[in-house]
Amino acid sequence: MPTVTSRKNPIVARYRAAARGEDASLMLLDGVHLVTEALAAGVPLHDVVTTTGAEARADVATILERLSRARVPLVSAASSVMAALSPVRSASPIVALAERPSAHEARLYGATTPLVVIAADVQEPGNVGAIVRVAEAAGAHGVVVAGASADPFSWKALRGSMGSALRLAVVVERDLARAVDEARRHGCRIVAATPRDGRSLFASALAGPLAILIGGEGPGLPPEIVDAADARVTVPMQAPVESLNAAVTAAVILYEARRQRSHEAHENTKTTKDTKSKP
What b/e readout covers 180-208, taking b as 16+ CB neighbours within 10 angstroms? Predict the structure, then answer.
């Protein structure tokens, strides 16, 4: 395994450019967990760098063996160089450059009753990543990252998603109105999450094809987008709390949608069985 000992090595420039988002085709994976998830998801890895001596760690040794079998180029780097390659404050023992996953609208809306999140102007990368993570956990079919939202494949957002962005359909659409129109064109009801003046979450119908609009930190959703939605949903909150974090709001609504959809599926199955059992 070749070793890099100088911060002037071209590989350092490539990783730092990826961390800044300067190459739209690449993403930087920081840490054992994300590199492992990328391998499991079949994401093409360009190369991987580990800190010299990190192979003594059991978790790093395991992944290095898998990378070697997959014939992924491996490089060792001195700790001072790794500090320049890894964007986190305390450098990780392993980093990688990988191709960004491509997601098409067909994956988002291919299900009979699609459940999609549209994150609008969510500018904090950690929140974008957390929204993607909870969307996968709740059984959503994908996330549209719209408007001025942070890049879902930036290193911060990837760490927030804990690997979900490598598996779930994630589409970037900078035109928020177009993102909403596409969801509606695919038969989705548009539900806007608002901190007040909406129908209570627990009295809202969320079982059918659905696109949930989640606004960014501070201003929330643009008024014209809220006005054009098919419904407004508000999460009940105890005073004096006025709003929730964007990712928390997405989680609460998605799990209520999941509960309703599971109940509806159960009732449909029960009705079908009862009908078949009748003479």
Answer: bebbbebebbbbbbbbeebeebeebebbb
pLDDT of residue 268: 55
Over residues 89-147, the pLDDT tens digits come to 888 999 999 999 876 667 889 888 999 999 999 999 999 999 999 999 999 999 999 99
pLDDT of residue 277: 57
Q: Is 271 helix (H, G, I), strand (E, B) or coil?
A: helix
pLDDT for 242 beyond 90:
no
Same structural domain for residues 77 and 160?
no
39 and 123 in a single domain? The answer is: no
Q: What is the DSSP string of 26-52?
A: EEEEESHHHHHHHHHHTPPEEEEEEET
* Whole-number percent of the chain with pLDDT over 70: 93
Is residue 270 packed enough to be buried (19+ CB in 10 Å), middle (13-18) or exposed (0-12)?
exposed
- How many Å is the Cα radius of gyration of the chain? 22
Paired residues of 213 in beta bridges: 118, 192
Report the mean per-residue pLDDT for the chain: 90
Note the pTM of the prediction, 2 decimals.
Answer: 0.89
Q: Are residues 151 and 171 in the same domain?
A: yes
Q: What are the Cα distances from residue 103, in Å, to 96, 117, 149, 173?
A: 21, 14, 17, 11
The enclosing domain of 60 has a CATH number of 3.30.1330.30
112 and 162 inside one domain = yes
Q: How far apart are CA 31 and CA 9, in angstroms?
A: 21
What is the reported pLDDT for 258?
Answer: 94
One domain for residues 264 and 168: yes
Q: How many domains does the chain have?
A: 2
CATH number of 116's domain: 3.40.1280.10
**Residue 212 in contact with residue 193, Cβ under 8 Å?**
yes
Q: Is the dihedral of CA 86, 88, 90, 93 positive or negative?
A: negative
